[in-house]
Amino acid sequence: NSRGTSYLLKDSVPITDFSASGPFEGHDLLRRGFTSVKNELLPSHPLELSEKNFQFNQDKTNFATLRNIQGLHAPLKLQMEFRAVKQVQRLPFLHSSNVALDTLRGNDECIGFEDILNDPSQSEVMGEPHMMMEYKLGLL
User: What is the C-alpha to C-alpha distance for residues 76 and 79, in angstroms, rounded to an integer?
Assistant: First the structure.
């Protein structure tokens, strides 16, 4: 057969097409939270994308400077520490403060906009704890 096995793959139907997701699926509030039109809109101002990526761009600049000063090992070590600290989270239904990440970045002594107006008690993402934990563990 000159076509090989590629002709078998193009005629097969992926299993994901048989799942419940699709245009007629109902929105699951417990798993996905409230729908927000704001997340689907394009940025309204040219600086909005820059502000959203501010921390990423600042980390990138700091890593480049650190690499030029101390060598390749310093930014790699710091990135591994960032990754390890980001994995430590509270349960899915509790707000995580990420104090260790703020300390590594040097933001622990700064008071910013998110410190004042990011009250976890006013968060919209609150559901039944047992259901959210089972979903995170893959039991649902």
Answer: 5
